[in-house]
Design brief:
It is a single chain. The chain has helices at 3-17, 23-34; strands spanning 44-48, 51-60, 63-67, 73-76, 81-85, 94-99, 102-107, 110-111, 115-117, 121-123, 132-139, 144-151, 157-162, 171-175. By secondary structure, the protein is α+β, with helices and mostly antiparallel strands. It has one domain. Strands 1-2-3-4-5-6-7-9-11-12-13-14 form a twelve-stranded antiparallel beta barrel. 14% of the residues are buried.
Amino acid sequence: MKFRELLTILILVSLCGCSFQSNQLNYLKQRFESSKPSEPLPTWSLEWGGFSFELFAINYGRNIIFTNDQEILIIFDGERVSKVEGLSPNNYVFDVSAESSSYEYIEGDKALPSFKCSEWAEDTSEKKFYSKLLLQDCRLMKGNYINEIAKNDNNEIIALKYKFNPNYPYLRLQYKQ
């Protein structure tokens, strides 16, 4: 047998005897496909007026913007809720403006009577799941209410109870752990 014929036979035998198994390739493809980044999940829950929603929290400057894919938008500036959209049955936008300790609510294009709120003060009574609870006492002619900010050991906000309008229930935001 000539060398060329022997080489051809060896190549053909090696090609026929060596089949490429795609199980390994399929396994690797599945691993990489399953590690694709998934969509972010909401990390906050909102309870308001008997309804519950799941929200995303977005840090923007010193503001925290809470939002979802259903047109809810809540802007918290670290001390007060300054804007609420998507919760009113009339699709009103609620703005809260503050000058010193005087707060003014704006519902749509209508200004409501202003009210006074104290500075935030730490509650030193018994703690629950948070390490620090800040309280803010607000007074209206109709009555009083108390806003709350709960923080963890890292001084991060983990819950918020806030009355953004005296005619509506408290807004309750909770970090989902």
